[in-house]
Amino acid sequence: PAGDHEIPLVICDKLFYRNGGMRYNSVRTPLFEHLWGGGLAGDVIVVNGVAWPKLMVDRGVYRFRIVQASQLNDYRISFSNGMPFWVIGSDGGLIDAPVEVFALDMAAGERYDILVDFSGFQPGDAVEMINLMQISLFGQMPGGAAVREVMEFEATEAPGTYTGIPDTLRGSAGKPPALPLLSPPQQVVDHTLNSSLYTKGLLMSWIIMNIDNLGFDSPDVDLAPQGTIQQWNLINADATIQVHAAHLHLIQFRVIGRQNYDHPRYGVEQRMHIRVGERWAPPAEDYVTGPLKPPAPYETGWKDTVRCPRGQITRILVRWPTADELGFDPDAVFTGPDGSALRGYVWHCHMLDHEDHEMMRKLRVIGSTAAANPMPDMQAGEQHDHH
Q: Of 194, 254, 257, 7, whose CA–CA distance to 118 is shortest?
């Protein structure tokens, strides 16, 4: 579907004052009005800037490009009548074939491309897109609750312009090449997603989100050699049992899968840091408690943001491109707005309340002689750079 039948849906939850102004802090106690309360959990779902909109649709197939734009919450997108829909793409483009689903989990910052078939509707029939996911713990603490309704679709008398679901999206004549198989990693890198205490002076301390127990201004910069294939193990070690959404700049990656691990024993035996400042990212392989679970079928394509549930190790495969492949040196020095010399990229939690509260790390994609592993042609053609 294209034209009027290919529609972006930017979905987020918001809070409003009675006068219609948008409220940022969901902590309603005046004492904490201007302090960070863990994140915003709204009580109104907004789609493309409109609260709980209605879309009139013909009785055919539509393509919706969904942007999960919440500041904190995950969503589980579904339909009120239980009807199926089809995922056809993720952050970095099309997957090999449509995946029929009845619900779609989306973390903050993730994008999914879906097909919805209204051909069985009669004129005047309506259905709601709904959210079935419980909100973040930080949203629940000040009294927030899950919001079910997202938007409504109502069928007109017009027959469908598009009436079919394709069998394949890649790997056949006239279509992009099939997704390449996962390559063995040359390096394994462990990272922890944490919450720690930040202390200022003798008395004041507060919780901050962080990666590897480091703040954003730490001189300890993550290094990624150009041309190498790395497996990143994203260990959700957060004591607040919070889900996170890891986002890497410059590249697209593939999700290997997720594995449960003994989070409490890992924290105790590996001496989890209470205060932020010293890198802490020990391997968690000795603490796994079950087999590696493959990604959801709709997560098998190119991604730049991945949901990292609590109590799990989320494993991704990253191929860092070379300067020759990119056509520029990703480690080149550039001049900042204040005239300072800067270089590199970042990776972070895509929950805005977390990335702004120290859960962001500096990353340099450094030169390497390991460029003997060429980037698959289709990946080179689907580079995305989100700044």
A: 7
Backbone angles phi, psi at 298, to 5 degrees: -85, 0
Query: What is the pTM assigned to this prediction?
Result: 0.90
Q: What are phi and psi of 137, to 5 degrees?
A: -55, -40
Name residue 74's amino acid: D
The yes-or-no verdict on residue 193 having pLDDT over 50 is yes
**Strand order through the sheet with 360-366:** 222-225, 360-366, 345-349, 244-248, 305-308
- Cα distances from 165 to residues 114, 119, 328, in angstroms, run 11, 11, 40
- CA 334 to CA 261: how far, in whole Å? 41
